[in-house]
Structure to design on (715 residues):
């Protein structure tokens, strides 16, 4: 794609992202008039001049007749994103209804379940605060007006700052991502429409999906656009590809560690997989020359995005490139399945979009069963060459069991005479885990990618070399000033308190990222108290070994291992929205679930660590929490209470929907019990819980018990 056409794609995405921003300004009383006219004034005042002239679609996407190619692209993207006609007559609240209010499920008797009452998200900037994240009863008209005004002022100021930063440069991708992150923070709780429309889709979700579709439609002929605009719900014209990526091998990669340093490397490995997922998703978008707005969701080792209808062949090439890199650096331990399913214009109507997600899920499962099948015979030989297992004991890592020529002994302290042999990869994961203990910012910076031509000739290295293969540097830090000064970088605050310290510049995009990052650190007081109970204590400030968490349990000394996820989530996405399923609603549902498992779960765990008796300090360790599932380790009594609170909090978060619930498995093990086996045991316990009629249960101490017996009062 030449530079001019790429710019057209990004400008179309920007117009799509801002096409309804006038509704926000209008409701806040910033200016009177039709929302398209107000949106045009927002563009004139807040968008850098070099892009302003290309954004007429913000004003013209409701014109009749529609004129101009770019306007028709955005108008069609708007209609497909909404996927329905506004033909309701009843009054609706001017707040955003929780998306869970639109979901229906079936109970064990086949009876339809839905929320008992309509609850709305508060009109507040997105933050990890229960008063913000949990839906409530509708506000008064006066409170709604004040809420919009309170949201608009900081949003307008931040837009003005972005305009100043980018007035004299051509960094449209950075500007677009900056605006998208502002939209997420300030419009996540604003309905995209409420007049003659159910207000259950946020302005953020609708706008980002409109931006994604506008990017995919750019390049189609104007004649084709005109034909689709006449009856988009009947058109079989191809619009886009729904693309999914899913990393397999995750459980073995994380859990197959010995107890010789497993604690310190564990969190680093888990977080690396999160970085890897995001890096690969961005690599795919960059290879397709599509904007970040085309990323629908990423987390839990998977991502979903929209590509152009004609990108299928290029996606096959990208799959091979990704497999080359993962094969070179992970020798087959990790694999990324990449699949797609075509979306026609009519697929965005009548709830048909849900069936396309099912098609994509089936395609991904099929590809995962034939790992690396896209590579030829010479490339696949890497998988069957000796991998360095068991040949040279001096080179064998005592943490992961792999052989590496640069394996070296590491000693805990001056008194440690035995030491532990560790390979460069495990040392790098340990260092990343150490950085996470104090992390306040996540960062990514673009650089040139270098996919290896011959995977078998690459010596597997540290995790940052894998990211570099896909064209990125990244990591975490406690001070954003330490982030390398790169040409294009993203810095995301990991908590609300440090967000205000971030300011964009011409090559830096800033924003907020939810991340469950609960890592227990040992104090000198705890070390003094445990000297006679635990062997090989680390120095103060380091990650607590599992043996310490075991010793700090109340009553019987055991480690608690928890696995937990949402029941019937596949069915909820496939059938829960019924004929009301639209691309924007699916995106909204994904976003809502991620807010809970990637945000609020961490807040619950942090609060519980604070509540823990001072003598034993932090007792919870998050291995991962993302997508719709989680894995925690800790003092057994605290882990049990954590599971109860997560389940209890989910009910009010999901607008008290009786069909939105979780099942969990908890096992008790010794501190030196093999982690891989503990994870497998907890996974089996979780399956046992899901075998309970109606699910919504906990398997613990060999018994499966419905959650309601544990008491689910709000915490």
């Amino acid at each position: 794609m030449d530079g001019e056409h790429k710019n057209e794609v990004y400008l179309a995405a920007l117009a799509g992202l801002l096409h309804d921003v006038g509704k926000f300004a209008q409701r806040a009383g910033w200016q009177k008039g039709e929302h398209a006219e107000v949106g045009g004034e927002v563009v004139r005042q807040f968008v850098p001049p070099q892009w302003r002239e290309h954004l007429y679609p913000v004003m013209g996407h409701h014109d009749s007749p529609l004129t101009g190619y770019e306007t028709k692209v955005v108008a069609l993207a708007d209609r497909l994103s909404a996927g329905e006609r506004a033909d309701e007559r009843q009054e609706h609240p001017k707040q955003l209804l929780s998306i869970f209010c639109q979901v229906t499920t079936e109970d064990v008797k086949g009876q339809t379940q839905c929320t008992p009452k309509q609850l709305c998200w508060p009109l507040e900037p997105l933050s990890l605060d229960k008063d913000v994240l949990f839906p409530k009863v509708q506000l008064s008209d006066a409170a709604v007006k004040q809420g919009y005004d309170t949201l608009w002022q900081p949003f307008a100021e931040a837009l003005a700052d972005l305009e100043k930063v980018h007035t004299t440069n051509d960094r449209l991708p950075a500007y677009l991502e900056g605006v998208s992150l502002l939209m997420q923070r300030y419009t996540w709780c604003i309905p995209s429409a409420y007049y003659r429309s159910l207000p259950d889709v946020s302005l953020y979700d609708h706008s980002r999906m409109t931006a994604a579709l506008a990017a995919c439609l750019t390049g189609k002929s104007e004649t084709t656009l005109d034909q689709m605009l006449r009856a988009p719900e009947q058109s079989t014209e191809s619009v886009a590809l729904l693309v999914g990526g899913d990393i397999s091998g995750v459980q073995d990669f994380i859990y197959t560690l010995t107890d010789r340093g497993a604690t310190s490397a564990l969190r680093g490995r888990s977080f690396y997989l999160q970085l890897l997922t995001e890096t690969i998703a961005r690599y795919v978008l960059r290879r397709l020359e599509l904007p970040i707005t085309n990323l629908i969701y990423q987390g839990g080792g998977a991502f979903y995005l929209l590509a152009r209808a004609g990108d299928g062949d290029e996606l096959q090439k990208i799959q091979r490139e990704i497999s080359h890199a993962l094969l070179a650096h992970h020798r087959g331990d990790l694999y990324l399945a990449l699949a797609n399913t075509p979306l026609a214009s009519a697929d965005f109507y009548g709830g048909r979009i849900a069936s396309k997600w099912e098609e994509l899920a089936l395609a991904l499962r099929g590809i995962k069963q034939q790992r690396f099948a896209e590579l030829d015979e010479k490339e696949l030989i890497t998988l069957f060459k000796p991998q360095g297992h068991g040949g040279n004991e001096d080179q064998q890592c005592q943490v992961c069991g792999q052989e590496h020529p640069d394996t070296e002994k590491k000693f805990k302290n001056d008194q440690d005479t035995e030491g532990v042999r560790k390979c460069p990869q495990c040392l790098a994961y340990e260092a990343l885990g150490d950085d996470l203990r104090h992390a306040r910012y996540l960062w990514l910076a673009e650089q040139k990618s270098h996919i290896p031509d011959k995977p078998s000739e690459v010596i597997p290295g540290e995790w940052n070399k894998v990211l570099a293969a896909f064209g990125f540097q990244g990591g975490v830090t406690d001070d954003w000033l330490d982030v390398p000064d790169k040409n294009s970088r993203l810095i995301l605050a990991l908590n609300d308190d440090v967000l205000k310290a971030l300011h964009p510049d011409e090559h830096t995009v800033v924003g907020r990222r939810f991340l469950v990052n609960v890592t227990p650190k040992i104090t000198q007081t705890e070390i003094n108290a445990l000297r006679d109970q635990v062997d090989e204590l680390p120095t103060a400030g380091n990650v607590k070994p599992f043996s310490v968490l075991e010793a700090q349990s109340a009553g019987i000394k055991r480690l608690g291992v928890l696995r937990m996820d949402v029941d019937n989530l596949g069915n909820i996405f496939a059938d829960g929205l019924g004929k009301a399923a639209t691309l924007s609603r699916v995106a909204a549902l994904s976003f809502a679930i991620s807010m809970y498992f990637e945000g609020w779960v961490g807040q619950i765990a942090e609060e519980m660590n604070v509540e823990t008796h001072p003598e034993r300090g932090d007792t919870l360790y998050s291995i991962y929490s993302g997508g719709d599932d989680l894995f925690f380790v800790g003092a057994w009594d605290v882990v049990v209470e954590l599971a109860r609170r997560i389940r209890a909090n989910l009910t009010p978060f999901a607008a008290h929907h009786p069909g939105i619930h979780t099942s969990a498995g908890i096992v008790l093990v010794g501190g030196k019990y093999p982690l891989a086996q503990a994870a497998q045991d907890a996974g089996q316990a979780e399956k046992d819980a899901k075998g309970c009629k109606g699910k919504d249960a906990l398997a613990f101490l060999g018994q499966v018990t419905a959650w309601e017996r544990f008491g689910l009062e709000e915490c």
Remarks:
- The mean pLDDT is 90.
